[in-house]
Specification:
This is RNase P subunit RPR2. By secondary structure, this protein is mainly β. The protein is built from no helices and three strands.
């Protein structure tokens, strides 16, 4: 689904922004791994997080 077709399931809004965390997601058993950032898609009308993706999933492989 393209961003222009997306609708918030909470409020019906159609304006979204992508944002990232400062803390990387990493495998539990790899404490020294750099991991990968999470990318959140957030509804600008109500603040609902409609999607969470890992930016570089290959960094989570063993």
């Amino acid at each position: 689904m393209q961003a222009s077709e997306r609708t918030c399931t909470d409020c019906g809004g159609t304006s979204f922004v992508e944002a990232m965390d400062f803390i990387n997601l990493r495998p539990v058993n790899q404490k020294m791994s750099l991991g990968s950032e999470r990318v959140y898609t957030i509804c600008l009308d109500c603040g609902e997080v409609v999607s969470i993706k890992v930016k570089n999933p290959e960094k989570l492989k063993k």
